[in-house]
Amino acid sequence: MRGRKRVCTVMVRLGIDALYRILCLKTTWVVRRDWIVAHHGQLFQVETHVHTHEVPVEDQLDGTMWITNRGQPLRYPSITSRPVRVMAPTLSDAPRRPVKPTPTHP
Length: 106
What we know:
Elements: H1 2-14, H2 16-22, E1 25-30, E2 36-39, E3 42-45, E4 54-59, E5 65-69, E6 72-73, E7 78-79
């Protein structure tokens, strides 16, 4: 009976939201240079500016997901595909003129 009473007092003291934040699966993921976090095959664009290279991702018991930084939730819309980079043409694509050796070349 004592253990059950202790759990109830912890729930009242912390609140049910804090208890759900404790009882979740937390993983740390890297924030890429373009502010994208990849989590379970999905891409999320972090809109909140953070001064860190890693953020914890919390998978809640009800199936929701939170990306946080120092306990504060971040804004992160899901993106379907990664933006395509426009590549500049390289010099190797241009036709080359054959090199003629100098007359003193053996």
